[in-house]
Amino acid sequence: MEQREFVPKKRFRGFNEYWKEVRLEEALEVNSGRDYKHLQKGNIPVYGTGGYMFSVNDSLSTVDGIGIGRKGTIDKPQYLKAPFWTVDTLFYMIPKDSNDIYFMYTKGKSINWRLLDASTGVPSLSKVDINNVKLVIPKKKEQQKIGAFFKVLDERIANQKRKIAKVKALKAAYLTEMFPQEGETAPKRRFKGFEGEWVVRELSDIVYKAVDNRGKTPPLNKKGIHPIIEVMSLGNRKPYYTNVEKYIDEFTYNNFLRDYVKENDILFSTVGRIGVVSMMDSNQYATIAQNIVGFRAKENYSPNFLYALFSNKLNFKRVNKIVMGAVQPSVKVSELIKVNYLVSSNIKEQQKIGNFFKNLDEQIETEEKKLDKLQKMKEAYLEEMFV
After folding, report:
1. Within 10 Å of residue 69's Cβ, how many Cβ atoms?
2. Which residues fall within 8 angstroms of residue 218, CB to CB, at 6 or more apart?
C-alpha cells in the first residue's frame, strides 16, 4: 500500500521531510493509574480526571507525561510534570523513543477522544482503543521545535489568564470595601474628602424608568438586524453579543416592542439567574428579552455608580429576598423597585466610585481581548502546523 505524503501548511526552516502515520502505541506508552490510599503525605502531586487532588510521598513516573481519563472526563488531556501519581481513573502516557512530550500533548488535545467511548453509561476509554489511535507525526527534531513553540504560547496564555483573574479578584475586593457591607452605614475604603454615612434609598428613588418588554414575545427572524439581549449575554460591563441567539426584523423592532433601552441603562435579569447586570452600550439596534429590565438612573445618580452597586454581592442577597418560584425563580419589577439600597448622596463621590470601577472593567476588557487574540493565534497555528 502506498504511503500517503503528509505535510503541514506551515513549518520551521530546515524541515522538509514527510510526516508519517503511526499508531499511538508506537509513540507513547499508555499506563494505568493506581490507588494512592496506602501512601503518606508528601510533595508529589496526585492527579485525577479533574486535575490536581493533593500530594503524596511516591510517584508513578519520573518523566513528564500526559493524563487522559479512563472514566468520567475522557476528553481533557492534562500535561503532567514529573514526578507525579495518577489515580485509577486516569491513564498516563509517557514518550517512547525520545518523542517530544509537549508535541504529543498538543497533538493529543486535538483528538476527539469521545469518539472512542463505547460505553452506555459513564464515558470510558480502554488501553486498546487508545493504543490504536492514528497519529501523523514528524521526526524528533521537528517535534521538539513545534513542542517548544506551543509550550511558550501556552505559557503566555496561562499568564494572561492569571493576569485577568488577578484584576477580577482586585475588583471583587474593592467592591467589598468601597460599598457598605451588612450592618454598616459607610464603606471601609473611601476617596479623600468624602465622609459621613450613606443613606437608604428605594430603587424607585434611584431610577426614574424601568424599560420592560415582559409579555411581549416578538416573532423572530434569523436574518433580522436587531439582536435580542438575554441573560446569557449579561455579566460583563457591556452586553456579550457573541452569546446572542435571537434576532428580530426592522418592522417588529419598530412596531411590536413596548420600550427601548438606551446607552448607560442598567440591564438587570429578573428570571432564572436573577440580579446579573450589564450596562447598555451604544448599540442602537439591540433590544432586551422579557427576562431583563433596563433601569435608567435619575439625574442625581451616576449610572457607573449604580452598575458597581448592582455588581456587589449584597445586591444578590437583597434581590433573593423577593424571589418567587423554585423551578424558574423570578422577581416582579413592582417588587424590585421597592428594594432598599445604601447609596452615597454625594454625586461627586458616586462619580469617583463609578469611574474607578469603570477603569477596572476597561482594564479587564483590554486583557481579555489580548487573551482572545492569543487563543485565536494558537488555533490558527494548530491548524497550519499539524497534519
Report:
1. 23
2. 228, 248, 252, 256, 257
Closest by CA to 307, choosing from 214, 190, 197, 171, is 171
Amino acid at 310: F
What's the pLDDT tens digit per position in 322-352? 998 777 889 999 999 999 999 999 999 999 9
- Which residues in 203-354 belong to E strands, given as ranges? 207-212, 226-229, 247-248, 266-269, 277-279, 287-288, 292-297, 340-343
Q: Which helix (H) or strand (E) holds 200?
A: strand 199-202
Instruction: Report which of 238, 264, 187, 240 is spatially closest to residue 361, judged by C-alpha positions.
Output: 238
Strand partners, 136: 21
Long-range contacts of residues 261-265, Cβ cutoff 8 Å, at least 24 apart: 261/211, 261/286, 261/287, 261/288, 261/294, 262/294, 262/296, 264/296, 264/297, 264/303, 265/211, 265/294, 265/295, 265/296, 265/303
R_g of the chain, CA atoms, integer Å:
27
Distance separating alpha carbons of residues 47 and 79, to the nearest angstrom: 10
Question: Which amino acid makes up residue 108?
Answer: G
2-41 residue pLDDT tens: 557 899 999 999 999 999 999 999 999 999 999 999 999 9
Q: Could you give the residue ranges of the DSSP H alpha helices within 223-262?
A: 250-255
Q: Rounded to two decimals, what is the model's pTM?
A: 0.87
Q: Which amino acid is at 97?
A: D
